[in-house]
Design goal:
The protein is mainly alpha-helical. It folds into two domains: about 40 residues; about 110 residues. Helix content is about 90%, strand content about 0%. It is built from four helices and no strands. Helix 3 runs antiparallel to helix 4.
């Protein structure tokens, strides 16, 4: 077999022999180095399994963080809503106080008119619509606040 190879090689020119030698050398280099390069660039199953385990642990931790943040958002949102409702109740109490004050002042004024009429024996016919307008405005504001409070509670 080698006898035939030597006969074939003897028929090649010098450049063809050098080219053949280069091809053989490069093939040997590729055959010896390629597996090492492939091993260096690829990961085996153990490394991949470890990486997957780390990623799963990270996912669990991140999911716990997300749940914690969701609960914190719900809590803060509820606190904010409660604070708004408390302020609206305070405003409603102030509106009721204003209405009571207006009613008392109107009653006093009407009583004073009656006393003046009786004492002076003359009829005073001054109509003042301002208290009624203020009462209507306060009722409207109170109604809007109640609707807003109901909407916030029902959310």
């Amino acid at each position: 077999m080698f006898k035939y190879i030597s006969e074939i090689l003897s028929q090649f020119s010098m450049t063809q022999r050098i080219m053949a030698l280069l091809i053989v050398l490069s093939s040997i280099i590729i055959i010896t180095i390629a597996p090492k390069l492939i091993d260096a660039t690829t990961q085996d199953c153990v490394e991949l399994s470890d990486k997957i385990k780390r990623q799963k642990a990270d996912i669990v931790i991140l999911n716990e963080d997300v749940e914690s943040l969701k609960q914190q958002i719900r809590k803060n949102s509820q606190e904010c809503t409660d604070e708004i409702l408390r302020r609206e109740k305070e405003i409603m109490e102030e509106i009721d106080n204003l209405r009571n004050s207006i009613e008392r002042n109107t009653q006093r004024r009407n009583l004073t008119k009656i006393q003046d009429t009786i004492s002076n024996e003359r009829i005073i016919t001054i109509e003042d619509d301002r208290p009624k307008m203020m009462m209507d405005g306060l009722k409207k504001i109170k109604r809007n606040i109640e609707i807003d409070m109901d909407n916030r509670i029902n959310k």
